Automatic annotation (TrEMBL):
It holds the Pfam family MerR_1. It is found in: Cytoplasm. Residues 85-115 form a coiled coil. The lineage of its organism: Bacteria, Pseudomonadati, Pseudomonadota, Betaproteobacteria, Burkholderiales. Residues 135-163 are annotated as: Disordered. This is Cu(I)-responsive transcriptional regulator. It comes from Acidovorax soli. Keywords: Coiled coil, Cytoplasm, DNA-binding, Transcription, Transcription regulation.
Length: 184
């Protein structure tokens, strides 16, 4: 039998933070740890292996549901590599699409930066392009407040229209941005 480790030692051994270990337990990627008589979490070799697997999967950009699916495949001796490859291929297609979107955003932003004089005048080609089809300017300064994380005991839903419920899909928005060259 191997020695059990506390959460700090397990985090070091697996190359993840203790906070992430607790998160993985809460989301079900890692089974709840056994507890010592004093209530401390204890981890063995198997849990460390799973944590390393999760770390490697995250490095490749797999989502939590995809990682759960991969862990299920890893633990299934009757699996076929075809099933695992299909998961990886879907992820690769998603990454390819995201890469294309990033290239398009970069190109659009490069064009905006290129047409901006960047001088002491108020005219700004970047702002003008961002505000295309917006009939008026805001009458306030935006003060972005990072949404608070809700605890598990907090059953309140975010207010409709709040930052938490109206996340801006920047990729989709950028696809609709066209650089307008004007005399600014």
């Amino acid at each position: 039998m191997t020695a059990l480790m506390n959460i700090g030692d397990a985090a070091k051994a697996a190359g993840v933070s203790a906070k992430m270990i607790r998160h993985y337990e809460q989301t079900g990627l890692l089974p709840e740890a056994v507890r010592s008589d004093s209530g401390y979490r204890l981890y063995g070799e198997r849990e460390i292996s799973v944590l390393r697997f999760i770390r490697q999967s995250r490095r490749l950009g797999f989502s939590m549901p995809q990682i759960a699916e991969l862990i299920g495949q890893w633990g299934d001796a009757a699996r076929s590599s075809r099933q695992v490859k299909a998961i990886a291929e879907r992820h690769l297609q998603d990454l390819q699409q995201k890469l294309q979107e990033i290239v398009e955003m970069k190109s659009a932003l490069e064009q905006l930066v290129a047409v901006c004089a960047g001088d002491d005048h108020a005219d700004c080609a970047i702002l003008d392009n961002l505000a295309v089809d917006s009939p008026s300017r805001p009458s306030h300064s935006a003060n972005f407040v990072k949404p608070r994380r809700r605890s598990q005991n907090d059953s309140r839903s975010p207010a409709p229209g709040s930052v938490a419920t109206s996340q801006l899909d920047l990729m989709a928005w950028m696809r609709g941005v066209h650089v307008h060259h004007g005399n600014h």
